[in-house]
Amino acid sequence: MSSPRIKFVKNRKIWALYTILIIIVIVISTFFVSDQYISSQIAKEETILNGILVGYSNDISHMIGHSAMQLTSLKEFILHNHTTSYLEANFTNYAKALYLSLSGIRNYIIAPNGVNKYVYPLEGNEAAVGHVIINDSRPEVRDDITRALQTQNIIISLPYELRQGGLGLVFRQAIFIDNEFWGIVSMVIDLPIIFDLVNLVTEYDEYLFALKDYQGNVFFGDPDIFDDDSVEMKIELPEFYWSIGGLPKTSWFDLILTDSLFTLILIIISGLSIGILVYLLTGRIYIMKLQSSVYLEKFILSEDKLRNFIEHASDAIAFSEFSGKYIMANKKAIEMIGYSEEELFNMRPFDLIPVSNKSDLKAIREGLLKDSNLLYETKITRKDGTILTVELSLNLSRDNLVQLIIRDISEQKEQLSNLERLVDERTAELVLANKDLEDFASSASHDLRAPLRALIGISDILSDEYPDKLDDTGKDYLSRMNIAAIKMDKIIIDLLSYSKLSQEEISLTPVNIENIVDEVLSNYQDQITENKAIIEVTRPLDRVLGTYPILNQVIDNLISNAFKYSIPERIMEIRIWSERINGNIRLCIQDNGIGIDDADMENIFEPFKRLHSDEFIGGTGIGLAIVQRGIIKLGGKVGVESSIGEFSRFWIELKEGS
Predict the structure, then answer these.
(1) 3-state secondary structure (DSSP) of residue 521
(2) Contact assessment for residue 394 and residue 366, using Cβ atoms and an 8 Å cutoff
């Protein structure tokens, strides 16, 4: 018959073999699942970054398009009256109005016969006056002038360093009167200001951004971004395009491995993306309202001039009588709604709103009567029956004329909806992951404690039945083994308690904390008597909102901590009281023990952050971590105040229980 020891050794070998096989399976499975998961997460991160770049692309295109319209306005000003006396008398005021209507403008210049004569603002730009721009020595400037003369369109330079300093764009247009060359108008905008308005920086959160022109010249950010595995998006501009590229600051892999909880990172990134999109949309609303005011007050001079102005707009713009029909619309508006110009002019302004959204009509009318400037989101029906989600910027002028700027935000709404859906999916995945973690912790604790209990039992048998066969060294080793196994078992129990605190669902109820204190102190009666400890409880202790099991464990850990860190040669004193702090209840437990150094204050609530060795003070290093996690689970706060060699005062703060 085999001896118990032989059976134990065989069982231990089988258990070890099973353990190794399980570990191998887990490692292989984890590697495969992690690889698939990481690949999917990187793809989703690229989708999120692509959405950010879409927002930047639309905003930059919109801002530069509106800037180009300023030059059209300046050209119309000259065509209205190009005499020297008229320009000298009115240029400054007109240019000032344009300058104040849009951020980022460096200057406006009128160059009759190609010679810079009228400059606003003049301060800081004095060197430009008298410059013969048509004979400029710079090749890139000569090329732009040549194209302006040949096409008579607005010509936009590539980004370059301006002579006055700073990165800028130059807009130029040649003016011909009666088919004769009259001169050139130009406008300079500061690109850094445009980038500030759309919240574009080279580094933002986890990403790096860069811009390059259609020739491949990088003028914003690190050129290496376009050489790596970046996400790129085109920015459509008049005449040409730019490209905006984005890349994580470290790598795609590091981006999703910043924290062990991948899904939590994805949720945070998704929330920031939504916040950025909302912020960009808010800034866009402000710009649209500003432009709407400028259009109505400055540029409605006559029907012909207005049509010429709005035809160059990048947004859909239309004009109507308040209670009548459309009287004007640009090509962008005609393309957006799908009706011909004749069909549109026979419609009332709000005939495009679907029947299901007719309540919007009343809201828009009443809103315009209360405030002449109105921003409203609604839906419109195109001629082919498709429905667009649009943002209407409306302005009611003094002569009862309504200006509408219509922006199609269907794609942005869809992106926002996709991001919200992604957040919901990640939240569901996180809940499932937490459930798996709880099941694993419970199973692992059971599997780990079984061999430990066997080890403790065998060491007890050896100690009791073979004391004469062990010398002092053997007995010492056996004692150490027994103590280590018991401590390991306690660590596993504490770890399981620590894990369960974050997993289990709780329902807060009023709890009599005085009863819990009395019950815990009764469990320490032997230690109180042995240490001749002085226990002072200031009654009554206020009721709090919590759960009995969690508060019982928290208070037990804090009182146990006071016993562990007492000073042997000093009579132990423990004081317990409650007080009201900003409408909450704070329970304080103060001892007169060894105290805590200020440098260790931030670490004592972290798991396994022990301040003393086992030879000095026992424990698993998880007790205070359980205290903090339990109180946070109850929606409260925990803290400590201490002085070395004098006292430690731990406190927990919770909502008052009625």
Answers:
(1) helix
(2) no
| Cis amide prior to 467 (ω within 30 degrees) | no
Contact 329, 318 (CB under 8 A): yes
Tell which residue, 521, 499, 486, 523, has the closest CA to residue 618.
486
Tokens of 585: 């209840």
Task: Report whether pLDDT(513) > 90.
Answer: yes
Residue count of the chain, please give it: 658
> DSSP string spanning 147-179?
HHHHH-S-EEPPPEE-TTSSEEEEEEEEEEETT
Running DSSP on this structure, what letter comes out for residue 132?
Answer: B
- State how far the alpha carbon of 48 is from the alpha carbons of 43, 78, 146, 282, in Å: 9, 47, 42, 20
| Residue 2: CB atoms within 10 Å | 9
Which residues fall within 8 angstroms of residue 407, CB to CB, at 6 or more apart? 288, 315, 316, 390, 391, 393
Give the global pTM.
0.38
Strand 218-220 with 207-213, pairing: antiparallel
Q: Across all residues in the chain, what is the average pLDDT?
A: 78
* Cα–Cα distance, 309 to 291 (Å, whole number): 13
Of the candidates 197, 170, 199, 174, which has an alpha carbon nearest to the alpha carbon of residue 184? Answer: 174
Q: pLDDT tens across 385-414, in order?
A: 788 888 877 777 766 777 778 888 888 878
CA angle 609, 611, 613 (to 5 degrees): 105
**Residue 523, exposed/middle/buried by CB under 10 A (0-12, 13-18, 19+)?**
exposed
Question: Is pLDDT above 70 for 443?
Answer: no
CA atoms within 13 A on the CB side of 21: 6
242 bridge partner residues: 213, 235
Segment holding 401, helix H or strand E? strand 401-408
The b/e string for 204-232 (b: 16+ C-beta within 10 A; e otherwise) is: eebbbbbbbbeeeebbbbbeebbeeebbe
At 357, give phi and psi (nearest 5°).
-115, 20
Mapping DSSP to helix (H, G, I), strand (E, B) and coil, where does residue 115 land? strand
d(CA 91, CA 74): 9
Give the CA diameter of the chain. Answer: 124
Q: Residues 65, 237: contact at Cβ < 8 Å?
A: yes
